[in-house]
Amino acid sequence: ITSINGSCREGKSYVLNYFIRYLRFPDDPKWFDKDIPNEDLFSWRSGRERETVGINLYSEPFIIHQGTREVAVLLLDCQGLFDPHTTLQQNAVIYALSNLLSSVMIYNVKCNIEENLLQNIQYFSSYTKAISRE
């Protein structure tokens, strides 16, 4: 499971839609330009209001061939952190659950990595560690 997490309105769903294109057309050098119907993509839009709420799992696994074995890749889209509707505790839960479910977690940062972002990641990671012990 590959998940993407990060602050609200920074393009997480948009990026995952390119992952879908790449995984659907693995042998096509023009995968980047492939059109896929909107209903087959993660929902996204520009603007200030959030689009993704909670944690969304893509509806189909992608089967990747690695030598003689097959690996299923699942994509997980997470609600943006730090929106005006979500408490710090709720943000920590979203981060922790996506972290625990994922083999690979991407923390999407649109601009600069700042001290408060690193402190929040440290706090969320400690919450994840506490949950995983129970």
UniProtKB/TrEMBL annotation:
One of the record's GO molecular function terms: GTPase activity
Domain annotation GB1/RHD3-type G: ranges: 1-134
Matches recorded under InterPro entries: G_GB1_RHD3_dom (IPR030386), Guanylate-bd_N (IPR015894)
Protein name: GB1/RHD3-type G domain-containing protein
Similarity comment: family membership: Belongs to the TRAFAC class dynamin-like GTPase superfamily. GB1/RHD3 GTPase family.
One Pfam family it belongs to: GBP
Record key words, sorted: GTP-binding, Nucleotide-binding
